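Subject: Protein entry, chain in single-letter code together with its fold tokens

Area: Proteins and the way their chains fold up in space.

Attached in line: The record itself begins immediately under this heading.
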Amino acid sequence: MKLNALKSVAFVAALSLAFAGCNTKVEEGKDYAVLKKGQQVSGAMVGWVAVVPSFPVVKKQGDWTYAVLASNNVIEPGQDGWVAVNPSFFSQLSGVALETPPVGSEERWVMKPEGKSVPKEKAGWIALPYSVPQVEASSAKKGREMASIAAGNLVPKEMHGWAAVDRETLSTLVGKFMLTGAGSRTDKK
């Protein structure tokens, strides 16, 4: 009798350990979790959003770099604190004509309720807390929009095709624009 009870306790303990790793977990050093088929939504991730994995495309222009944003891109830690600029204003500042990236998957999956299994078609998707950049627009000059971006932000569809640069590069671009571009004109034409 004691042997059967001991076997039952050992079986329950082994089963508990096996299922302990089935909840979704944040990737080490990342702000998101990569979903695996059959994992369960953990309580800490209820309300998170899952998207097809996509990240901004980084390009080089002379001695500086910029990232082209697409809808549902996940902002990476290396782009934390960068500033996104709408395409027309970025072109005015930098002289770079942006090519609009192709539209990827617009689908988002809200993770709930706790304990729900990840569907097989969502395996490999990235899950993260829902956070989008806040766009600020100039009240004096139409079409001048910017947004600070942070690691873990999701790029909303309204910012599809925008460019992002680090603050130092933005400062340099704005300085040149104010000295030589349309920003240097003092007349009111």
Q: What stands out?
A: Strands lie at 33-34, 49-51, 57-61, 64-68, 83-85, 109-110, 126-128, 135-137, 145-148, 163-165. The two ends are 96 Å apart (CA to CA). Confidence is low (pLDDT under 50) at residues 5-21. The chain has one domain: 22-183.
